[in-house]
Predict the structure.
Amino acid sequence: MKSVGAFEAKTRLSELLERVSRGERITITRHGIPTALLIPVAETTPKLTHPDIVEGMRALRKRVKRGKMSVREMINEGRRS
């Protein structure tokens, strides 16, 4: 793990982020004392694709009958799904 001073981290942030995105862990120090840790973010949930979003909207539309719910109720129903 590489250690970098706060001033250097500020001036070379783009380069440090690139290195972190490749898996490197970098400790940022202030006056020689570890202050922060730059680590790669592990993707926890896959991002929804456009077809997934459209399919979800269609499924919601089938469950909700027009005129039986207010817009607010429809929004809340969509949040629970």
The beta strands are 2-5, 26-30, 33-38. The longest strand covers residues 33-38.
